[in-house]
Specification:
Strands 1-2 form a two-stranded antiparallel sheet. The protein has a two-stranded antiparallel sheet with strand order 3-4. The longest helix is centred in the first third of the chain and has 29 residues. It is built from 14 helices and four strands. The chain has a single domain, classed as Formate dehydrogenase/DMSO reductase fold (Up-down Bundle), CATH 1.20.1630. Helix 6 runs antiparallel to helix 7 and helix 7 packs across helix 8. By secondary structure, the protein is an all-alpha fold.
């Protein structure tokens, strides 16, 4: 039996990126919503809601980025110079958030500075991810197996739109997470924020979805040619189902349903990107198989990954299980 190792690895890296987006997305969203907290106590509760899991969530970013370097080195060598600015900004934003997490608890006089560092790091990281996604969707020019574009090619009206969409989507995840994890006035305010961010996210998804097929002819063909055009009906229908679940969950005060519905919207958007990209790993012309390392390297790395990924899933699931339930306002990350 032979295995299509580049295809398997593309699936693993896509899974790692998706896991990062849906897991780290809500704690970035909490940071984006931080300026709207009414009191210091509310900010403490918001930060404590993500404190047990935030750094574990970023494990998936390391796995996705490291996997891309090891398994698809050509793709890595093209994407990094093309997206150097937004990727570096994202990493600096994540570092700023991490430092703020540690230091805001150790000062009262300067706590507001670390609060703004947490806010700024969250917004910068989210904006940068959106810019990178938008630039990747537009396509990265190559010549002789190297990046052939300019320094600022990543900054376009479309990438700005996707960056705003990502920030708003993360805010939706953050607000629904706070609905799940908090009580009282903070929960009610988060529920109202979820209505606003949910509507804005859905509108932005609609605009991006209408724009994307016209960026490149192959995207239009994948979405509107048979048999893949069937996804043009299935994916929007499933997004509408998740939107209905989000609305009814908020309306009926079902704490878990809005969060799961918001996660579903993100997963479906990721599936839509996959449909647009496949079989390329770097649009418009670098395929999974052209970018892959030799099969012997892929097989060797796969052995370790088969062991590592279940362990990451296990300790991630365990951490969420241990810290399940509402945040205790009198306990936290100190």
């Amino acid at each position: 039996m032979t295995f299509d190792l580049p295809f398997i690895w593309a699936g693993l890296i896509a899974f790692a990126v998706l896991a990062y987006v849906v897991l780290d997305g809500f704690d970035l969203g909490v940071g984006i919503l931080f300026p709207f907290a009414k009191t210091t106590r509310d900010r403490d509760i918001m930060m404590n809601s993500v404190a047990p899991v935030w750094d574990g969530n970023e494990t998936w970013l390391v796995l996705g980025g490291g996997g891309l370097l090891a398994v698809f080195p050509l793709a890595y060598s093209v994407v990094l110079p093309a997206l150097y600015v937004p990727l570096m900004a994202m990493l600096l934003g994540l570092v700023l958030r991490g430092v703020a997490f540690e230091f805001r608890w150790h000062t009262k006089r300067g706590q507001f500075l670390w609060d703004w560092a947490f806010i700024g790091g969250s917004i910068i990281a989210a904006l940068s991810q959106g810019l990178a996604v938008g630039a990747l969707v537009q396509g990265i020019p190559m010549e002789a197996r190297a990046y052939a574009g300019g320094w600022w090619d990543w900054l376009t009206p479309f990438s700005v739109l996707t960056s705003i969409a990502v920030v708003m989507g993360y805010a939706l995840l953050g607000s629904t997470w706070l609905v799940l994890k908090t009580e009282g006035a903070l929960q009610e305010r988060s529920r109202q924020q979820a209505y606003v961010t949910g509507l804005a996210t859905l509108i932005l998804i609609g605009v991006v979805s209408q724009w994307t097929p016209f960026l490149r002819p192959e995207y239009f063909g994948r979405w509107f040619a048979w048999p893949t055009m069937i996804f043009s009906f299935i994916v929007p229908l499933l997004v509408a189902t998740c939107a209905y679940g989000l609305y009814t969950g908020l309306r009926d005060k079902r704490d878990l349903r809005p969060f799961l519905s918001a996660l579903g919207i993100f997963v479906l958007c990721f599936v839509g990107l996959g449909i647009s990209f496949y079989p390329n790993i770097v649009p418009p012309a670098l395929s999974i198989w052209d970018a892959a390392a030799p099969d012997k390297s892929l097989a060797f790395l796969l052995v370790g990954t088969v062991i590592l990924v279940p362990l990451i899933l296990a300790y991630t699931a365990y951490s969420y299980w241990v810290f399940w339930g509402k945040v205790n306002p009198d306990e936290g990350y100190h």
